[in-house]
Amino acid sequence: MDILILVAAVLLIGLFCYKNVPTLxxxxxxxxxxxxxxxxxxxxxxxDTYMGGLVGFMKSWMILFFLGALFGKLLDITGGSDxxxxxxxxxxxxxxxxxxxxxxxxxxxxxxxxxxxxLFICYPIALKLCRKANINRASVIAGYSxxxxxxxxxxxVPVTNNVLCASYFGTDVSAGGFLGLFVSIxxxxxxxxxxxxxxxRLAAAGKGYLPAYGTGALEEEESDDDDAKKGPHWVLSVIxxxxxxxxxxxxxxxxxxxxxxxxLAVVILQFKYLPRDWDANxxxxxxxxxxxMTTLINAAAIVGFGAVVQNCPGxxxxxxxxxxxxxxxxxxxxxxxxxxxxxxxxxSAGLVLAAPVLQQAATMTNAAVFHRTTVLAxxxxxxxPNAGFxxxxxxxxxxxxxxxYFPVIFALTVVLTILRCLLYMGLAxxxxxx
Length: 434
Fold this sequence. Notes:
Layout: H1 2-18, H2 23-37, H3 42-78, H4 80-92, H5 97-110, H6 115-133, H7 138-151, H8 160-169, H9 177-204, H10 235-251, H11 255-269, H12 278-311, H13 313-323, H14 329-344, H15 347-362, H16 367-378, H17 388-397, H18 401-430
Helix pairs in contact: 1-2, 2-3, 2-12, 3-6, 3-11, 3-12, 4-6, 4-10, 5-6, 5-7, 6-7, 6-17, 7-9, 7-18, 8-15, 8-16, 9-18, 10-11, 12-17, 14-15, 14-16, 15-16, 16-18
């Protein structure tokens, strides 16, 4: 019964998101409903639990969001993102923006770069590409979603999910090896075929590039004369993007410091292209703050709801019920990790909750295969509408949530991702690996 209640709450907040109800309103309403059902104190639940989750998220991520927004804004006003956009467009072709975004995002993800950082690095350029090629903004989210889910699932990379499973199951980040890489390659090929089919439908319906929805998109609308503006060489845009990656992986500093290095690199390398007018620079910073707060509140409102869910008396019971599922070890982790990640609205949160209990199941089969199955399973239902990151992504892309969720996000990051995990399990069984 507790599972049904929590799933219903997740579906309800998903419906609110789909109907473009402000996430703060939807989060509070769904939280209050859960408090009433479980006879929790509403005042304490709202001001301590909900606001605690919301404020805690903002406290942890506000500086990162601001630096990310400023990074993108600086690349925009100097013309750096425009220069790089033209180069990428020439390489991948005007109709392959989603492929370029997919490859670029996958590389960032495999380098261990936070999805929030990769979002702010990738989207300013990708949206420019869409404008120049008259391609719908949904293509950016499609390519980004596919590349991110590929990068987070392959073996050998230092991503959080991989490292968490290695620490709990006594394996290493190479667990699942070539079979895991094979199914992820199949995933990205099938995913790109689906994206191209979807883009053809959009083109046939005359849905090309449109102005941004809302106020959080990273790029500004430009006139046709902007193409004639001389900006910095594209290399001067690539270097600031590489610097946060290098600083993170070489010096192991905080993510915020790494991104600050990227911001400083833009200022130094593209200084001659920055406006010389104080008001223009002040507006750039002001716009970055505005975009930062818009995306931050949208995500934090959903995180606050997640805090209420995890504080409900039925949450622990629901988790225990999920983890007590009887079946093969691989099927146990497939079901348990998917469901817990879905309720928590986060793949890493789902792993943190599920992995300690799944340690015993890992000893009953090939631990490496179990490791890779768990990683793949964590990336399935974590993309339900209660995932705060999705709100950030749509806000930054300047699209309506309901326009892209089912045909793009759900299709690629839920349906296709779950099928990838099932394919891995099937092949592992067929080859006698589990």
